Amino acid sequence: MPRIYAKARRVPGVMNGTESKYALHLEAKRVAGEIFAYSFESITLKLADGCRYTPDFVVINRELEIEFHEVKGFWQDDARVKIKVAASKFPFRFVGVQYKKREWVFEEFKGENDA
Question: Could you give the C-alpha distances from 56 to 33, 43, 62, 66, in angstroms and in order?
């Protein structure tokens, strides 16, 4: 018999533990002048009719470029598909972020036309 897992209740606009820890990381980078600004769940992108994607963090780097950071404990297939579609549709940097072995691990998602 397959195992049944309880689905976590997700409250929009409220950070989970990993997102809160990443917000502290971003704040330290902002104070150090490594990034200009960041915000949590402040932009929603329309991927297709009836399909939207709200990245966890919008980050404005030192060059004033917009980046979208998606923080995950682990990746579900649907989340990975959404960020890949967003990266192929929009001209921004999309970054997956995980906290592994007490350090932040980053994965950049690029569109089909990006090198």
Answer: 21, 9, 19, 13
pLDDT digits (tens, 9 = 90+) for 44-94: 999 999 999 999 999 999 999 999 999 999 999 889 999 999 999 999 999
- DSSP three-state, residue 70: strand
pLDDT of 114 above 70: no
pLDDT category at 13 given cuts 50, 70, 90 is confident
Q: What's the CA gap between 47 and 55, in Å, rounded?
A: 12
pTM of the model as a whole: 0.87
Query: Are 14 and 33 in contact, with CB atoms under 8 Å apart?
Result: no
Q: Are 56 and 43 in contact (CB under 8 A)?
A: no
Q: Torsion-angle region of residue 89: left (phi > 0), alpha (psi -120 to 50) or beta?
A: alpha
Q: What's the rounded Cα separation, in Å, for the pair 17 and 65?
A: 27
Q: Which domains does the chain have, with CATH numbers?
A: 17-109 (3.40.1350.10)
